[in-house]
Amino acid sequence: MQAGGPMLRIHSQDDDRSNRLLVSLATYNERDNLAGLIAAIHDHAPGAEVLVIDDNSPDGTGQLADELKAADPRIHVIHRPGKLGLGTATLAAMRFAIENRYQFLLNLDADCSHPPRYIPALLQGMADHDVMIVSRYVSGGVAENWPFTRRLISRSVNLFVRLFLRLPVRDASGAFRCYRVAKLRETRLDCVRSRGYSFQQEVLFRCHQAGCRIGETPIIFENRKAGASKVNLRESVRSLSMLGWLGLRATLGFEKYKAA
User: Fold this and answer.
1) Sheet holding 21-27, edge to edge
2) Domain with 50 in it: what CATH number?
């Protein structure tokens, strides 16, 4: 299976990652963040393997990822020919994890807004969940230095997905999550249509359809450390339109639910 790029298979001595963690990072112009982020990941999860999926970043992120890979066998890299979107990158990571038989896939944004110090809490939650989300909107969670308009949009989107997609979560927008790979095998990833920022809500919806037990742990969400945000008005409108289409299908009964 492939999603927006080549599927690479990793071979180890026994070729069995059934008890191992893969951390995925989708990158586009994140050279200033990448090395420090991977080091922080390994500070909190020393045995984790890291998959960098780079969309031909003009700032040399992909080249740096190759240099880090050459120095550390825990790092793997997929190069894609251009900016193909966050959704396809995450799908590629999911399929990579499935093909290579990892136990858990944990996804972080590469802009350092997702501090790796929360990784242990996510993994602890996986003891009795199939998807764990680091959440801004449960007790103890907060988004630092967000303007009112961004807070309003975020809250509105999350209210929409709770009401119309029936997702039992407070924060369906964040990408900082851990998935049980065995349940991803049962999830209809082929049905996912979102390729931009609505991907996070839709893939959670598909996981819920597959019967995944979903949990949340609080985060203090921080602004990116370096680089510029990829969010723009065009992508926001496209994502809201996609969620509206999915919500309409769910409301009319075209999307069937499987109780978790």
Assistant:
1) 75-79, 49-54, 21-27, 104-109, 177-180, 131-135, 214-218
2) 3.90.550.10
Residue-wise pLDDT tens digits, 191-239:
888 877 788 999 999 999 999 999 999 987 765 544 455 555 566 667 7
Domain tally for the chain? 1
pLDDT reported for residue 259: 42
Q: Tell whether 3 is covered by a domain.
A: no
Backbone angles phi, psi at 242, to 5 degrees: -65, -45
Name the residue range of residue 221's domain: 21-251
**Averaged over 97-116, what is the pLDDT?**
94
Give the C-alpha separation, 104 to 224, whole Å.
25
CA 213 to chain centre: 17
